[in-house]
Structure prediction request, 161 residues.
Amino acid sequence: MSIVVERYFVPVIEGVPQSHSPQPESNLKLCFPKLNLDDPNCGYEQVDISAQITPFFAGLGMWEVETLSTVERVDGGLKVVRNKRDMTQEERDEKAESIRNYFVNDFIPTSLARARELKDKETDETLIADWERYIAELENFVVDPYNLIIPSAPKLIRITQ
Prediction:
């Protein structure tokens, strides 16, 4: 069994990509049966689309938004390049409110319930104190989406010798 990887192409004029939407080789062959994509003068050039098929954009910051990808010449070949921009103040406020709502309505109540449950099952006085500290931190937690420092829970696993 072999895996066939589809190649993608964009039209190129004088080395400049004319589209930011790479087309699969199979589509081009259907539309243009006589087109030889292996001919360097065919008017199309192969594009590395690996950035496009990766679902997570690692370079995206918390207060940035991904914009349309572009096809650019990188190290002599064409690549899909993911782009970003800073959020507008309205987008930042909307995201901050969403973060605040998540912590107030979901994370904090769920974490408090679980922490109290685990504290009640604990027999070690030191760990009971750790759970009480964590519960107090959660109860006093002020959600600041622009400077989010989440209280850390006690370790659940003890290593004994």
Observations:
- Residues 8-86 form one domain.
- The beta strands are 8-13, 16-17, 23-24, 44-48, 64-74, 77-86.
